[in-house]
Specification:
By secondary structure, the protein is α+β, with helices and mostly antiparallel strands. The protein contains 11 helices and 26 strands. β21 and β22 form a beta hairpin.
């Protein structure tokens, strides 16, 4: 007996312990990885021996270096479950599907628990192949935190973006594959904070002039959340190793004071993120700002909401892989509409049409249509905005025209086929027309192919003029 005990002690002393081999924290059960993409999987080990990974039973071997190992896997193009097992280590079960990143400010950040229709958004999702990853914003005390992937059950959906969840719910229903949603959003933030310093104009990247322009309410969260590039560095850059199917972007309210530069900044953001993801054709779905304030508001040539909506449309029209989603009719007297399900549904429908090649094709949106002028009448062909146009109520209250003096006047307006025609006795020689140009305008013209209002537009380029000129 003593001899056996002594041998056991000897063996324990001289035989090496089993090698430790682990996945990185980002390789998690219930994660969704982008189907058809290259996915780099890595981890750590305390051994110099080869690391053996079995992917659905197929053997993949790699040599570690300085305690780290990684392999690049080709994720199947078909949607299905995948099992990753490390020999002598851990096992992970993930889903191959489509991954969408949702980002922006407060209307994207509003959690499902606070949305008026949050219960309807989350209902029945526990058994749907929908997975959620939330990025908590940085604070003064710590950096951003990526929470674990979760199922879309009651616990997972409560704090998750209502718009993002509604989008994923509807998209998954339409395309029938697993969908992974990443919520990286923060209220009260400007677009400059979401763009890397390398892509921002120098004056913005240096911060001094830019920060002086910020309103006091734009500073908060225990840190300068609107300092240029701070949210890109803290919440976005760390996600760039995860291939994406697309981005859902809902932001712009905090950029109303510099709407004239918003189209350029949004274009910079799209190209910036594509470079960091190394996905040159990464799709963007841009939620245009809804109406805000009293409905059927009077015409306002200086409307900041209308200016941002136009900038969003311009950015999408310039980009070959972006689409703007018109939500003009989904607004509220509050800057934060309480119902979020319609926003997600409309964005998912646009994503399906534009990026999945299903359903009626959405027209390429022209932000500033060209007018035709015949004497006292000015007309605009609406086909670049919608393939089918109908009316709901009188058009006149939503239309104003102006002559070369820049003085806007109410007009008599009518729709003939897809052509909007207007005239006014106060404007004998019109040169410009604006439609639905207010913070929360009336929307009598409808895109009948997609069952949404026609977006507001203008035919002039008078942004440098003061209001009324």
């Amino acid at each position: 007996m003593k001899l056996l005990f002594g041998l056991a002690l000897f063996a324990a002393a001289v035989l090496p312990a089993a090698a430790r081999v682990e996945f990185d924290a980002s390789v998690q059960d219930d994660a969704v990885v982008q189907r058809g993409a290259a996915w780099r999987v890595g981890g750590s080990t305390d051994s110099t021996a080869a690391v053996v990974l079995r992917v659905d039973g197929r053997r993949v071997e790699t040599m570690p270096r300085d305690g780290r190992w990684s392999v690049e896997l080709a994720v199947p193009a078909d949607a299905r479950r995948m099992e990753l097992a490390l020999e002598g280590g851990e096992t992970r079960r993930v889903l191959a599907g489509d991954v969408w990143l949702c980002s922006g400010q407060s209307n994207m950040a509003m959690p499902t628990s606070r949305a008026q229709d949050g219960a309807a958004i989350a209902e029945g999702l526990a058994d749907v192949p929908l997975r959620l990853l939330k990025v908590l914003p940085p604070t003064r005390a710590r950096g951003a935190v990526q929470q674990p992937w979760q199922r879309a059950d009651a616990a997972g959906t409560r704090a998750f973006s209502a718009v993002c969840l509604a989008f994923g719910r509807e998209l998954q229903r339409r395309i029938g594959v697993p969908v992974g949603l990443v919520d990286a959003s923060l209220g009260g933030t400007r677009i400059e904070a979401w763009i890397s310093a390398a892509s921002l104009p120098p004056a913005v990247a240096r911060d001094e002039t830019y920060l002086r322009r910020l309103a006091p309410e734009d500073r908060g969260g225990g840190f300068e959340k609107n300092r240029a590039s701070i949210l890109f560095d803290g919440m976005i850059a760390g996600l760039a190793q995860q291939p994406l199917r697309g981005v859902l972007w809902y932001q712009g309210e905090s950029n109303r004071i510099n709407a004239a530069s918003y189209a350029d900044l949004l274009g910079l953001l799209m190209q910036d993120w594509r470079r960091h993801w190394r996905q040159g054709d990464l799709p963007f779905v841009i939620v245009q700002l809804p109406g805000f304030g009293a409905s059927a508001a009077a015409f306002d040539p200086a409307s900041p909401m209308a200016a941002v909506r136009e900038a969003q449309a311009v950015a999408a029209a310039r980009d070959r892989n972006a689409v703007a989603v018109n939500t003009l009719d989904l607004g509220d007297v509050d800057l934060h509409p309480p119902r979020k399900l319609p926003f997600g549904q409309r964005a998912a429908a646009a994503a399906e049409r534009r990026f999945y090649g299903q359903g009626a094709s959405a027209p390429a949106q022209a932000a500033i249509p060209r007018p035709q002028i015949q004497g006292a009448r000015i007309s605009v062909d609406l086909k670049p905005l919608a393939a089918c146009v109908s009316t709901q109520g009188p058009i006149g209250p939503a239309v104003q025209i102006a002559g070369s003096d820049g003085q806007w006047q109410p007009a008599e307006a009518e729709l003939s086929g897809s052509t909007l025609m207007a005239r006014s006795t106060r404007v004998p020689r019109p040169v410009a027309l604006r439609y639905a140009w207010a913070d929360h305008p009336a929307t009598p013209l409808q895109d009948c192919a997609n069952n949404v209002p026609l977006p507001g537009f203008r035919t002039d380029d008078w942004s440098a003029r003061p209001a009324g000129r």
